[in-house]
Amino acid sequence: MEEKKQPVKFRVARKPIYKEEKTVNMTLRIDKGLQQKYDLWAEKTNRSRNELMCMALAYAMENIEIIDEEDN
After folding, report:
1. Is the separation of the CB atoms in 62 and 56 below 8 Å?
2. Residue 67 burial (10 A CB sphere; 0-12, 13-18, 19+)
């Protein structure tokens, strides 16, 4: 039987002072509770909500596992 992977914490350090590179604009709808969490994390890390969301999306892209419906 295959062993389940343990989730890895998404760790974020305080933001160093420098400007980011090229970006594109996108619209995203999220739950209000999730927005409130991002607001708290943004304050604690001196990063914008947008930057934290981008970091979380990049992390998800590197760690996503797509499964077939029959694997459920």
Report:
1. no
2. exposed
User: What per-residue confidence (pLDDT) applies to 71?
Assistant: 61
* Alpha-carbon separation of residue 70 from 5, 63, 66 (angstroms): 19, 21, 12
The answer to whether residue 39 sits within a structural domain is yes
Residue 59 lies in a domain: yes
pLDDT in tens, 7-53: 788 888 887 776 666 777 889 899 999 999 999 999 999 999 999 99
CB 38, CB 53: distance < 8 Å: yes
Q: Which range marks the domain in which residue 53 is found? A: 32-63
Number of separate domains in the chain: 1
